[in-house]
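Dear colleagues,

As part of the handover before I leave the project, I'm documenting each prediction I ran so the next person doesn't have to rerun anything. This entry is a single chain, and its sequence is reproduced below.
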Amino acid sequence: MSGADSEAAENGTLDRESHGDESLAEARYGPVWVLFGDRGGRYPDGNSLLVVGERETLIVDPALGVIPRRAKLPQVHRVLNSHCHEDHIAGNHLFPGVPWHLHEADLPGITSLDAMMAIYGMDDATDAFFRKALEEQFHYTPRPDALPFRGGDRFDLGGVTLEVVHTPGHTRGHCCFRIEWLEGGRRRRLLYLGDIELSSFGPYYGDAWSDLADFERTLRHVRSIEADWYATFHHIGVVEGRTAFLTRLERFAGVIDRREARLLEYLREPHTLDEVVAHRFVYRPGDPVPFADAVERRSMAQHIARLLDAGRLREAPQGRYQAARQPDPSPGSSAGS
């Protein structure tokens, strides 16, 4: 879904520039430029932010779409990454002479390729394939001197501030960035959501450094953050206004419950985890994703573990799982009693 262009067109306050290629479309929100990636920031590309202050300019999550723009960008003083995944750091190598900043929990991933691969936790065959993709397609460049930040840290660029909001789940160190400035005496805010992408795919928590429970806590937290605009790295682009944001957020978060409901329905008959993986609950059956089995295994294992804890699943013979039979209503009880 290429939602970025339609969202931007609906926002009457922005200045939009086109360079003859939709992948180079841009939108301005005060001091924040959204640099849209190819097809609305669809993977492997994404939507990057350029934040221009009176003293400093920083770039957030420089994606593949930044590469053809490099010569037209102003001087950049810092690179901030919302987390350490391949598509979010694909343009970091364009800025070797400035500091790179990541949350301390994800910082190891930018220091070496081995540490980067540990974030994913892939099997040997997929690991070899993905290492090559990281270096050749995503321009992975290790940076041992990258600098850590924490939730609550602020970057004062002069007339505009960026505050780090730690939002783990997608990775341990995933962060949102709350950007604030004054415009006509009024305080304006843009919340950059990173990979809380508000898409129909739903939350991704299938890597070794992902956590479903953390992601659910994060979704509850970001629901409380007020802003004028909400920007995503993939697909949607920019959502204007809290009402539209909450509508999209509820639909995005609801994918977790829908996956779990489908899993419980499937486990009305006993199945092994291997069978659950093959059935597919995150990706569609037949999707040509080389790491799909690993993602399904980690994602569904988290659902199975909490359903066991809640008594909604039981362990069956031969390493299988089955939905627990719910107790029948007590005699005499009814909806009308």
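Residues 267-323 form one domain. Confidence is low (pLDDT under 50) at residues 1-23, 333-337.

All the best with the project,
I.
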